[in-house]
């Protein structure tokens, strides 16, 4: 085979004309840098609020006819439960927030029950984080 000695010219990709005029894409907002919470607010790393959020888990994809007792039966083996906030909307699936006494218990419950098949529904269990 015969190859030409002349190099092929490589063109840069065409730029969109509005990118040359504006440093940002119209219709999109720039994301602001995240500020650290002030010590006086309730969301500091040592504050009560952040400790509560680290102990609370989200349980989703619950059947529509579930009761609070059944949610407690699912999670009691992972540690002492402080509160269960069960939300059952008019149309399933329902969801719940389960607060444990210890954050390590909440972590164990997430690993043990995420993807668990409960009454034909695959549970979604995840951690709650403060903003």
TrEMBL record:
Presence of the UniProt keyword Cell membrane in the record: no
Region Disordered, annotated ranges: 29-50
Keyword tRNA processing (UniProt): no
One Gene Ontology term of the molecular function aspect: mRNA binding
Keyword field: mRNA processing, Nucleus, Repeat, RNA-binding
GO biological process: mRNA processing
InterPro entries, per the entry: Nucleotide-bd_a/b_plait_sf, RBD_domain_sf, RRM_dom, RRT5_SRSF_SR
Residues of the RRM domain: 55-130
Subcellular location: Nucleus
GO CC terms, sorted: cytoplasm; nucleus
Protein name per Swiss-Prot or TrEMBL: RRM domain-containing protein
Organism: Aegilops tauschii subsp. strangulata
Phylogenetic placement of the source organism: Eukaryota, Viridiplantae, Streptophyta, Embryophyta, Tracheophyta
